[in-house]
Task: inverse folding
């Protein structure tokens, strides 16, 4: 009787125990493998991110070096000879010359010094536009666009819908540089007939959008180029925007006639 | 583990001296459940679950005392053990579910807590049906099945040993930071 009862109970009991044990082990194994998968994925993401950071840093350093070389070249090739010539006018046997020649030399030296001053001013303006510093982004962009329009090759215009409160100075400079870089790219590569820039304010962000009718970039192209070794300007845009936690989106208009670049700049509390 | 060893040794001693040993095992059930509740409260960060665990301690203690009064201390409290097993399994499943969403750099099996939870989870899952059925069997037949219980106690002890030999030096701080 005991054996019979024992046999009747034994099968479901053993099956139940094995089943429960199997489920418990299966759950633990699943957790382990799932977590391994997640960790591998996260490590891959981190690696990709650090690669991206390296590319951006390299681009930024290269750009800085190029900028330094340009300034050095300007100073060495333009300002240097001008000042040397002025020195020549003022020192070469000036005392022994007659008064008229002396005056002529001084006048020539003055002209050359004026040129040198203008050159240094231009270099200084290219480093930090005074309009941007004194009157803000809207005026600086207008100023910049007027210069481009003056060349007559392309029609460039901008419209700031709501820019009563200025961004912080360093943020304005970054946004201005990004706009400059985008406009330069459009002028160099797009072969477009017009560029239109608009500015809007969101609740927590500012949107700047550039339209043009030439050959442009889609966001896939932008991502591809920012990961490759080419497209230094685009990498520069990306690294600059990263500093202000901004974002950029390149897209083609649904009508396929325009390309758009939208810059999203988050506002800080003191700018709201 | 130490309490478990004392209870087991005392149980064997009582069995050897032909005295009922269920009394010590019943007390052990209460101590083990309270200990596990406190342990889970430490390792589970969710505040709602922490409160529920606290409520469970109170509920289980009251339930245990009622059971003791209804059945005599000389009898083994099968329902209490079954409730404890269900609690251990449910909480272990929740703990593992939470681990899916935690982004740690270290693999989960490098943590002591993982092995402790696994030890009690495997033990509870393995002995769940046994303890459920054992109550319906006559005492002389029960002894045939004790081997299953012993087997899972050994497995639990091995897993707890692994847990105690884990070194948690810096792995707690190794979290993923995504920028």
Result:
């Amino acid at each position: 009787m005991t054996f019979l009862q024992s046999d009747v109970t034994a099968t479901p009991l053993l099956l139940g125990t094995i089943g429960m044990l199997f489920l418990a082990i299966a759950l633990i194994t699943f957790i382990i493998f799932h977590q391994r998968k997640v960790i591998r994925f996260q490590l891959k993401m981190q690696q990709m991110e650090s690669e991206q950071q390296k590319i951006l840093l390299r681009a930024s350093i290269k750009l800085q070096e190029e900028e330094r070389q340009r300034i050095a070249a300007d100073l060495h090739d333009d300002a240097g000879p001008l000042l040397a010539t002025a020195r020549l006018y003022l020192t070469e046997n000036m005392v022994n010359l007659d008064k008229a020649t002396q005056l002529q030399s001084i006048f020539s030296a003055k002209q050359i010094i004026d040129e040198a001053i203008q050159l240094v001013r231009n270099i200084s303006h290219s480093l930090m536009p005074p309009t941007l510093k004194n009157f803000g982004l809207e005026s600086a962009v207008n100023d910049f666009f007027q210069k481009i329009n003056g060349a007559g090759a392309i029609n460039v215009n901008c419209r700031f819908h709501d820019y009563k409160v200025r961004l912080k100075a360093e943020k304005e400079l970054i946004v201005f540089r990004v706009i400059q870089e985008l406009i330069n790219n459009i002028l160099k590569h797009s072969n477009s007939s017009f560029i239109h820039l608009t500015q809007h304010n969101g609740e927590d962000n500012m949107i700047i959008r550039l339209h043009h009718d030439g050959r442009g970039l889609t966001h896939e192209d932008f991502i591809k180029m920012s990961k490759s070794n080419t497209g230094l300007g685009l990498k520069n845009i990306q690294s600059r925007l990263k500093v202000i936690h901004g974002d950029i989106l390149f897209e083609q208009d649904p009508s396929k006639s325009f390309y758009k670049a939208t810059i999203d700049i988050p506002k800080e509390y003191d700018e709201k | 583990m130490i309490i478990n060893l004392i209870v087991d040794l005392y149980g064997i001693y009582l069995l050897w001296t032909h005295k009922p040993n269920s009394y010590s095992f019943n007390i052990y059930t209460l101590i083990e459940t309270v200990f596990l509740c406190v342990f889970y409260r430490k390792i589970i960060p969710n505040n709602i679950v922490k409160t529920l665990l606290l409520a469970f301690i109170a509920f289980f203690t009251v339930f245990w005392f009622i059971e003791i009064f209804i059945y005599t201390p000389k009898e083994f409290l099968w329902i209490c053990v079954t409730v404890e097993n269900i609690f251990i399994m449910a909480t272990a499943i929740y703990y593992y579910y939470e681990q899916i969403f935690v982004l740690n750099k270290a693999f989960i099996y490098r943590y002591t807590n993982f092995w402790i939870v696994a030890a009690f989870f495997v033990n509870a899952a393995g002995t769940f049906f046994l303890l459920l059925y054992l109550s319906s069997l006559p005492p002389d037949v029960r002894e045939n099945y004790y081997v299953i219980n012993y087997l899972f106690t050994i497995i639990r002890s091995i897993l707890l040993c692994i847990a105690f030999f884990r070194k948690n030096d810096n792995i707690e701080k190794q979290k993923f930071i995504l920028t």
